[in-house]
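Researcher: Let's do a round of design. I'm pasting the structure tokens now; please hold your answer until I've finished.
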């Protein structure tokens, strides 16, 4: 059996965060991905904090992911850190 690389594990984790947040909000994972990608949340929050986040409960991760999404969207953050 092949072992997954660290990058593969991180991508699987990011996908699970997207799916859990989408399920909680009642939207499709595709729509949740679009929202997160628009503000750079995957590259600037989920992946950089993988080591910390993946040790937490699914409920905590979903709560903090949605809180961060909301805060960044309200602030008008974009992938480059600029305002929308």
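Researcher: That's everything. Go ahead.
Model: Designed sequence:
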């Amino acid at each position: 059996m092949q072992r997954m690389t660290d990058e593969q594990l991180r991508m699987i984790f990011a996908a699970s965060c997207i799916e859990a947040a989408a399920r909680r909000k009642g939207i499709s994972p595709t729509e949740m991905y679009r929202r997160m990608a628009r503000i750079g949340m995957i590259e600037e929050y989920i992946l950089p904090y993988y080591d910390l986040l993946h040790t937490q409960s699914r409920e905590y991760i979903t709560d903090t992911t949605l809180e961060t999404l909301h805060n960044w969207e309200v602030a008008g953050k974009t992938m480059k850190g600029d305002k929308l």
